[in-house]
Amino acid sequence: MYSLLVASSLLSSTVSALSLPWTKQEPILQPRGQKAVGHNDLFFPNPDHPIPYKIPFTWDEKEHYYEKHINGSGDGYYRRSSCPAMNTLANRGYVNRSGRNISYDDLAQAAREVWNFGDENILVVLWPTKKNHPGVERIDLDMLADEKVQYDTNCPAAPTRNDREIGDNVNMNMTLFHQLMSASKDGVTFSLEDAAEHHHRRHNDSKANNPDFRFGNQGAICSLAQYGNMFGVLGRAGKYGLNTLYVDDVKKFYLDDDWPIGYARREMPYYSPEANSYIDRMARHIGYRIQRPYPPNDKGYIDVEPEVAKFEILPAWEYPDEKSGKGNEELEL
After folding, report:
1. In 3D, which of 268, 245, 235, 261 has the Cα closest to residue 112?
2. Who has the most CB within 10 Å: 15, 50, 143, 310?
3. Which residues partner with 189 through β-bridges?
């Protein structure tokens, strides 16, 4: 009995100590914006709220009203990138609405504030442009996908954009967009496997039509990350768990270059280990493994992805039948 009392006292003291930074009056899911400058805010768990999820995103509509422009509109005045997340930042005024003359620091801070994109993931996105435009400290958004950067990052087979060698790689190709929407098996949500299968069709289409096609490990990561990042940033609770991606959210994101209705911001920054877990799962579904670190001749690789995917030749995975115990033979291995 004495030991139980001691244990109870220790547990009570521990919980009390852990609770010091928070008050019971503070709403657990109180919306809060990005406070830190130059790095992500940290998530501090407490006994009442130990696991990070997502909280409703709030903004000042007077300052961050929605106004869409596409690359080259306004007689060439407005600049946009091939990335809807970046375009949202301009359409909402978190960076210069013209999409011109934006510092790397401002772009990074806006990505933290709106998407809670992790610092090292921000570096992955911005570094190729900074490296290929040395001495340039302020950029236009379309420079994120210009010829120098596109050649360096080698990012073919984007979900809704042409390869640069084929045509406009900044503004959306509506045929590719509709193909993406049709990848949802239930018409309501996307699974990572749905995304992988759509990517594989884009990969084969790009390979067939792009005369300069090459697809090393870096190219695979760049292409698959465009799907994975949507699950990480826009995903919410649903059929496939906490990061289920919804068709209506993807439509809003791509068609309007805007956050979805009811958008909730991550509490935990979206760091590369999580991003890589989505990328690797999609690659496994197709039937290959991305090599890290990249081999020395990675840019010379013609293709690391098989033309015939594993999911095309193996039976579809099914959850086991609870009554019969059958339904997924792999579980018996």
Report:
1. 268
2. 143
3. 246
Helix (H) or strand (E) run with residue 243 in it: strand 241-246
Residues 258/248, Cβ–Cβ less than 8 Å = no
CA 148 to chain centre: 23
Distance in angstroms (rounded) separating the CA atoms of residues 187 and 121: 30
pTM: 0.84
Distance CA 304, CA 223 (A): 12
Q: Which residues contact 263 (CB under 8 A, 6 or more apart)?
A: 56, 57, 234
Backbone angles phi, psi at 100, to 5 degrees: -115, 155
Helix (H) or strand (E) holding 149: helix 147-153
Cis peptide bond N-terminal to 56, omega within 30: no
Torsion sign over Cα 148, 213, 194, 184: positive
Q: How far is CA 192 from CA 71, 168, 184, 199, 285, in A?
A: 30, 27, 10, 10, 9
- pLDDT higher than 50, residue 15: no
Per residue in 182-241, pLDDT (tens digit) is 999 999 999 999 999 999 999 999 999 999 999 999 999 999 999 999 999 999 999 999
Please list the residues that pair with 264 across neighbouring strands. Answer: 56
**Which amino acid does the sequence have at 182?**
S
Q: To the nearest 10°, the Cα dihedral for 319, 325, 331, 332?
A: -160
Residue with tokens 């961050």: 64
By percentage, how much of the chain surpasses pLDDT 70?
84
Q: 325: left (phi > 0), else alpha (psi -120 to 50), else beta? A: left
Q: What is the largest CA-CA distance in the chain?
A: 81
Paired tokens of 232: 């990480």
